[in-house]
Amino acid sequence: MRLSTQNHLTHRERLTRGLAHTAGGPVDVARGAVGLSGAAVQRGAVELRRRYRESRLADHVADAADAAARELVAAGEVVAGLPEVLAYGEPRRHRIRRSWVIAGVAGAALLAGGVVVLIRRSDRPEESSPRPPSVDTQHKI
C-alpha cells in the first residue's frame, strides 16, 4: 500500500534510480525509458500542432492582405472615376434643392403645429389640485 504523501518520481528520476539499483533496476529502466520517449513524442506532437496553427494563421494573414489589396484597387478605380461622376452630377442639384425645400416645408409645418398647441394650452385656465400641498409653502428663516 502506498502512502498518499509519497512523491511520485519523474521519468528522469526513475531512470536514474533504475540504473543505480540492481534488483529493481530493469523494471525502472524500462519504465523510465518508456516515459521519456512518451514525453518526447508528446512534445513533438505539441510542436507540430503549434507549427500547423502558425501556418494556418499565416495563410489567413496572406488572404487578408490579398483582400485588402483588392479593396485598395477597387477604391482607386472609384476615385479615378470620380471626376466623371461629378461632371455628370449637375442635374442632381435640383434634387438637392428640392429635398431642402421639402425639409423646410416640413419644419415650418412642425413649428406651426407647436405654436397652435402652445396657444391652446395657454387658453385653458390652470386647474388647482383638490389635495393640499405636500410641502410647506411658507419659507422658514
Automatic annotation (TrEMBL):
<comment type="similarity">
    <text>Belongs to the CwsA family.</text>
</comment>
<keyword id="KW-0472">Membrane</keyword>
<dbReference type="GO" id="GO:0005886">
    <property type="term" value="C:plasma membrane"/>
</dbReference>
<dbReference type="Pfam" id="PF10814">
    <property type="entry name" value="CwsA"/>
</dbReference>
<feature type="region of interest" description="Disordered">
    <location>
        <begin position="122"/>
        <end position="141"/>
    </location>
</feature>
<dbReference type="GO" id="GO:0051301">
    <property type="term" value="P:cell division"/>
</dbReference>
<protein>
    <recommendedName>
        <fullName>Cell wall synthesis protein CwsA</fullName>
    </recommendedName>
</protein>
<dbReference type="InterPro" id="IPR024245">
    <property type="entry name" value="CwsA"/>
</dbReference>
<feature type="transmembrane region" description="Helical">
    <location>
        <begin position="100"/>
        <end position="119"/>
    </location>
</feature>
<dbReference type="GO" id="GO:0042546">
    <property type="term" value="P:cell wall biogenesis"/>
</dbReference>
<keyword id="KW-0812">Transmembrane</keyword>
<keyword id="KW-1133">Transmembrane helix</keyword>
<dbReference type="GO" id="GO:0008360">
    <property type="term" value="P:regulation of cell shape"/>
</dbReference>
<keyword id="KW-1003">Cell membrane</keyword>
<keyword id="KW-0133">Cell shape</keyword>
<comment type="function">
    <text>Required for regulated cell division, cell wall synthesis and the maintenance of cell shape.</text>
</comment>
<keyword id="KW-0131">Cell cycle</keyword>
<keyword id="KW-0132">Cell division</keyword>
